[in-house]
Amino acid sequence: MTWWRRPLLALAVVLTALGITAATAPLPAAAAEPQWWNRGTIPLYSTTAAGGETARMPDGSVRTYLAVSGKPAYLAEIDTFSSKVLRMIPLYVPDPSSTEQPPDTGAQGAWGVSVDKRGTVFVSSYGFGHVYRLPWGAESIEDLGRPSPRTSFTWEGDTDEQGAFYFGTSEFFGPAPLPGGKLFSWDPRTRQYRDYGDWGATYGYVRSVEYAEGKIYAGLGPTTALWQVDPNSGRRVQIPPPAGMPTDKYAYQLENEGGYLYVLFAGGTTAQVGWVLDLRTLEWTHRIPGYAGQTITTADDRGRVYLVDSGELKQYDPKRGTLTATGFKGGSEQADKGGLGAGKGMGRFTDPANGHETVVGATAGGDLWRYDTVTATGTYGHLDDLVGTPTAPRSLARGPDGRIYAGGYFQGGLAVYDPATTTWTTHPYAHQIEGMSAHDGKMYFGVYPNAQLWEFDPARPYGTGNPRLLFDLKNEGQERPWTVTSAGPYVAVGTSPKNSRADGAVTLYDPATGQRRTFGTGLATGAHQVSALTYRDGILYGGTLGCCNSDGSKHPGQAFALDTASGQVLWRSTPLPQEQGIAGLAFDDRGRLFGQSYGTVFELDPASGALLRSVQEFPYAWETVTNFQPRAVNMAFDPGDGMLYTTNGTTRRIDPDTLTDSGPNYRTTFADVSPGPGKFYVQGGNLLEVKWY
Prior knowledge:
four-stranded antiparallel sheet, 57 strands, single chain
């Protein structure tokens, strides 16, 4: 146990990443200082490779490059046939002279890794939108910078014969309204970016870019679109999607081989699907239902490629539209886990040990596999030399066992802190938890994407089947489960909609029967996300977020009451029209209903939703906000001292009678403020325990 005199200040970049501006007014003095302890770094680590590429280098060797997510992410260079990790290069080049906002602290990961014919590696990253370049033989990586001030993501790209790099972006930095994603190139001769422009705000993502036969192909989303662009003139030709393709998909990944463009359409409310485009005619020829992306091998002299379909390596003939199974799914154990997954860094090479043609690939979890096409045998193994990287905390909650559960961003694992012993336990958990809650002795995790709900029983060993996936809400058009709460016999889940939808939803799951009901209409007017839930006497009370919709619209935060037995919406209200979100709700022991937008706390009449009173702690510029994390607000009443505890960039201790904050105010992001003297807060990457009484 370590005693600290003064809490650490949370890093500004953490608040920026949450889309939140901290209060700048002086913080009120506390009447009595609580005890507190810094419990150290939350041990969330993962080996997660979003992007990868395998290529033959100028010296004849074969290299696999994987971009491993973290703080910062790094580029791993791997000898493909020995599985030796040669080096791990941080995707961060400090620049004290930079004036970028938000300031760059290194890539958090990268979906795009491309290798040109000269062996130069390009990495298009997310977090701060930088592109990195590693020339063959170079000792260090170059940071090519952010292509525009608003670029937050640079997606998968491709190179041409001269080494120019083409890629797409999302432009999520800066105030509303958000522009569309853009198409860029970087020219090694001029060392400058070229901006080819966007396709409008409807297309926030230029998600994948491929260069083929003298043209650029740009896959857009979240509204389905594919375009051909001339790299010299910038002239655009729209390629209509395949007949019957839903309009809510991303043209997610593009691969060019043998005169065909392989396109993975993903996202939306229906299953992902692959299609093959004839580049000579620009006509769609064949559908590949089980195509997993992310890369494919080079084509043989008959145009055939290897790809991953339904977890299995298969050979595909684009002329006939036929798949030939190899039976290789990574071995029996990996087959039981779903097989090879998305094929990262796939390629077809000659194994120097035996001269056999060998198909190689990697996985998101840092595994490398090889399949010998001559002997029809394969190997699959983890790259043990890859270093797991720390990932940012994404969620925090107290479990039924009294321990504190922390989930990480992207595939950040699961860390559990035991206050009784002041020790940590970590578990592999390759899912991003947005909201979680204890209910009837178990823990429930709300996971992105597709608004999944998982159940974990702390009384049983962590492992196969524990936690287990209960369901997802993809068919209901839901994406992020921002709030999970115990609601009488139910687990209640409040969600954001997919980018193609406007309405968030409430789902009631009954663990006793396994049944669930989803309510997606009538909760609020206008586009919205369900951002807060609380329960009392058979009624579920909710709050919505209206600021940050995929269609760019903005609406006031609204409150509602739902009868959990009948599903009837009893009332709706807009208590604070100037506030575009309600992110916290809680009852006290007298039946009073309290809420919080971000900078304002208030009381509602639980019978009607009418506003009774409010106190603004600080103004919040909702009109400029484009991304708000509802779990920046964490609100609960504590009968132990009769106070409301909440967060909004700092800790808050609110008197329910006066709505005044008695402090002290420690900087924080995510938190667990459930009843009990000790409460827990994320501060940077650390866990802060505060004993309030």
